[in-house]
Each structure stands twice: as C-alpha cells, then as structure tokens.
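Thought: the user wants the 3D structure for the chain below. I'll pass the sequence to the structure tool as-is, report back what it returns, then summarize two notable features.
Action: structure_tool
Action Input:
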Amino acid sequence: MFLCLSGFKNNTRQVDFEFTTGDDVSDYTIIITGINENGQKETVYESFRVE
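Observation:
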C-alpha cells in the first residue's frame, strides 16, 4: 500500500488508516517510511499477529 500525505502536519505523530490481511494465522510487519519536517528519512516498524 502507498499512502501519500503531502503537506500533512500532525503534532501527535499518529496516522490512522485501514487495510486487510488474510484469514490465515500469520505474523505481519507494517513498515512506514517518510520524510520528516527537517527533510530526514524516518522509518517505523510495527509488528502484529493474526490469530
């Protein structure tokens, strides 16, 4: 999934979005990479398990 938030400002550093996964039990990792207000690359990883 590609999500573009051009000109987005959020002091809470929180973004809500929806996506779907398969019904199989599995581990998933969401990787979000972006450019912060200082022009530096930031990457966040969040893992979860579907049971």
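Final Answer: Structure generated. The first strand starts at residue 26 and ends at 35. Strands lie at 26-35, 41-50.
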